[in-house]
Every structure is written in C-alpha cells, then in structure tokens.
C-alpha cells in the first residue's frame, strides 16, 4: 500500500492536517490507537482563539463551531475578595471562543471521514514509523480486527500523536533536543455538571492557591484548583473541592458558584516541553507530539491547530504544485509561536501562583503585576495581545 501522506494520531492536529489534504484531493491515511467514540468524547480544551477560528473557517472546518460556540468578550480576575473584569474585546476588537474539544473533534472526524471521504483507521496498535530520513518512509501498525501487521509506504509522515505518541522517537536522537520546564505545582482538573457562575473565564488569585473557572456549556463547567504536586484525586473529596473553589473564587460583588456532580477529577502534572527540531527528513511533527504547554493560558489546542494549518497547507502545496517553501520553513514558523506562548504561560503562571508561594516578597510583586493590568493601558494591551494570540508571526 502507498499513499502520499500518513498522519499518525486523530486529535485536533492530525484531523485538521487530514482535512486540509483531502480538500486538496491528496490521499492520506489517518492512524489512531483509540476508537472513534473515545476520541469524540475525550474532554479537554475549550477556549479557542479568534485567529484559529478564522483558520478553521478558511478551510471549511468551522460550520459546527460557528453555529454553537459562545463568543467571549472578557475574562475576569478575582483577588482581594472582589471581581476585576478584563474586557479584552473592548481593548482589541477581538474575541475568544468557547467550544469544547470533543465537539470540535467530532466535527473534524465527520468532515474528514464522511464528507471528504478520507481514510481513517481507529483502534490500531503498535504503530511504528520507519525510514523517515529516506525518500520512501513508511508507517506500520497492527490491525485491530485481524491482529495482522500492515505497512503503508508514503512520501511524508505527519506525526500528530500527542504527548504520549511514538512519532517523536523517530527523530534522529543526536540532533534532537527536548527543553522541559516543570512548574513544581499540581492542578486538580475538574468537570462539574453545573452551570458556570459567570459566562466569563475566571482566574482566582488567592493566598491559598489558584482557582479557575472555564465555562464549557450551560450545563457543564471546567474548574481548576492548584494543589500540591504529589496529590491524587483521593486527597480531594467533593466537599473539599467545593469549599476551596468557593473560597478562592469568592467575590463580594458576584453571585456564588453553583455546585453539581463532579464528572472528572484528575491531577495534572504541570509542565511544558518543546522538541527541536520539529521535523527531520520526511517526518513533520505537529501539536503536542512536538510541544506541550500546561493549560495555564489555554494555549495547547490553539498551538496544535496553528501547526496543523501550516503543515496541511505546506504538504498540499508540495504534493499538488511541487512547492517546497512551506515545508522548508515549517518548523521555524511554528517554533516562533510556540516559544512565545511558552513564555506567556510562564508569565501568567507567576501571576496565578505567586500569592500562594509562601514567599511574601513574591506575593507582593505578583499582586503589583496583577494590579498593573487594571491601571496601565500599556500593560493591559500587552496582556490582551498575548492572551488572545497573534494571527501571524513574521
Ligand atoms: P492530542 O489531542 O493528544 O491527539 C493525539 C492523538 O494521537 C490522540 O487521539 C491519541 O489517542 C493518538 N495517539 C497517541 N499515540 C498514538 C500512536 N502511537 N499511534 C496513533 N495514534 C496515537 N488547550 C487549549 O488550547 N485550550 C484549553 O482550554 C485547554 N484546556 C485543556 C485542559 C486539560 C485538562 C488538558 C489535559 C488539556 C487542555 N488543553 C487546552 C490542551 C489540548 O487539549 C491539547 O493541546 C490538544 O488536544 C493537542 O492536540 P493534538 O492533536 O496535538 O494531540
């Protein structure tokens, strides 16, 4: 079997690359270890940048999102027992969108498989990437029904298999550098079957630790609670979760949180990494296969989609018109944005976590930084630009 492109992984990045290729009438196979139902239900991200929505729209992939997503115009910090709204649309004219990742993935699978008649193979196992530094790379896998091993030869491999994937290990070890940053804290990630208390994203900066609220839908709300890095869900019975959320997100001028059953409760190991180079020979990584950013600034899926737009377009240009420029510049173009977002996540992490650091000096400077967002138009504009994301990186 031979196809021009094998895409490893059916997350937001891989599905977007596959959709762009199919729209250009380029054949590809998407390989995914999980089932269709599993990837369509996996709850994760929800906040999407304007520029990403536009990128999806330009590629015919935003119909579901535009029909159902909530358009956000402000976020809100809570500190000193009060709410401090940050009206970013008023400052920039730009928005954030809330559209849960499972809905986006469902739309992307449907468009790829059912509308654009793309080949997607769910439930495969033991995926291996071969010969990517030659002109005839290949990907092999075990078929879920027969257990038989299959090999697909191709011209290019798109490694979109996320943080736990295999394609990254096909980069030549002697030329690969993994830069990693550990935050030294934990975040308890929660999904509550309860309406959000505010339709804005809330950031609670509190001496007991950070707390966040991200609306997902009128019925479901994501919450985060800073916790000790070694904690497990067992350390956080529901009544402790709600007591801490109420305390850390308290604002005398806002209604209290609405409690509900907790559908998800897990501790995230808060770290970032960047793999360089993101490409070697005929292997191109995109999304979390190449870089992870802790959900501090809600950037992970946005970065994955920015990569996927560049990679899909570059592969289509190469395979349809013989134009190599996009692929040649791909890794550098992605990495400029990736490092910028990593820096912003670190900056924002200091704002979120400084008050609870136990160091009164750091707590003081953090609060000064936070207050500056509400007193200095220049500081507010800089924050809004990074929080909302730039459309282009020159
Ligand atoms: P993934 O979504 O991980 O997709 C990779 C796919 O590859 C998966 O389907 C996996 O099953 C498959 N796979 C793995 N190994 C193999 C293999 N060997 N062979 C074949 N397939 C394989 N981002 C935001 O932008 N905004 C947010 O608000 C936000 N909130 C988040 C909240 C939480 C709790 C978490 C955990 C993440 C959040 N993120 C957020 C990050 C976002 O979910 C990820 O950045 C995004 O899913 C990355 O997309 P991806 O396509 O690169 O990888």
Automatic annotation (TrEMBL):
Which keywords fit this entry according to its UniProt record? FAD, Flavoprotein, Oxidoreductase
Instruction: State the SUPFAM superfamilies in the record.
Output: FAD-linked reductases, C-terminal domain, FAD/NAD(P)-binding domain
What's the name of the protein?
A: 4-hydroxybenzoate 3-monooxygenase
Which InterPro entries would you find in this protein's record?
Answer: FAD-bd, FAD/NAD-bd_sf, RIFMO-like
Q: What is its EC number?
A: 1.14.13.2
Q: Which GO terms describe its molecular function?
A: 4-hydroxybenzoate 3-monooxygenase activity
Instruction: Pinpoint the FAD-binding domain residues.
Output: 3-344
């Amino acid at each position: 079997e031979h196809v021009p492109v094998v895409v490893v992984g059916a997350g937001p990045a891989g599905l977007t690359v596959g959709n762009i290729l199919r729209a250009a009438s380029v054949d590809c196979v998407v390989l995914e270890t999980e089932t269709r139902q599993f990837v369509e239900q996996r709850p994760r991200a929800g906040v999407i940048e304007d520029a990403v929505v536009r990128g999806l729209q330009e590629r015919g992939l935003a119909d579901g999102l535009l029909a159902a997503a909530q358009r956000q115009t402000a976020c809100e910090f809570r500190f000193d027992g009060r709410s401090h709204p940050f009206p970013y649309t008023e400052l920039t004219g730009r928005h954030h969108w809330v559209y849960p990742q499972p809905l986006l993935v469902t739309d992307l699978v449907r468009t790829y498989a059912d509308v654009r008649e793309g080949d997607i193979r769910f439930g495969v196992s033991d995926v291996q990437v071969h010969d990517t530094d030659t002109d005839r790379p290949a990907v092999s896998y075990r078929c879920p029904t027969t257990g038989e091993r299959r090999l697909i030869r191709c011209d290019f491999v798109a490694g979109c298999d996320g943080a736990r994937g295999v394609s990254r290990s096909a980069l030549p070890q002697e030329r690969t550098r993994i830069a990693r940053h550990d935050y030294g804290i934990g975040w308890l990630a929660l999904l509550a079957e309860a309406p959000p208390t505010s339709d804005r994203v809330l950031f609670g900066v509190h001496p007991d630790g950070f707390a966040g609220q991200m609306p997902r839908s009128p019925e479901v709300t994501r919450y985060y609670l800073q916790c000790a890095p070694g904690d497990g869900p067992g350390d956080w019975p529901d009544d402790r979760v709600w007591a801490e959320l109420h305390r850390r997100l308290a604002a005398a001028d806002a209604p209290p949180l609405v409690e509900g059953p907790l559908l998800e409760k897990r501790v995230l190991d808060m770290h970032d990494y960047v793999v360089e180079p993101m490409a070697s020979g005929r292997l191109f990584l995109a999304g979390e296969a190449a870089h992870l950013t802790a959900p501090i600034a809600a950037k992970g899926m946005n970065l994955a989609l920015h990569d996927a737009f560049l990679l899909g377009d570059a592969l289509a240009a190469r395979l349809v018109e013989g134009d190599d420029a996009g692929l040649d510049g791909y890794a550098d173009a992605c990495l400029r944005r990736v490092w910028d977002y990593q820096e912003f996540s670190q900056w924002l992490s200091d704002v979120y976590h400084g008050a609870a650091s136990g160091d009164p000096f750091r707590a003081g400077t953090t609060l000064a930084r936070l207050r500056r967002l509400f007193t200095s138009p220049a500081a507010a504009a800089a924050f809004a630009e990074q929080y909302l994301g730039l459309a282009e990186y020159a």
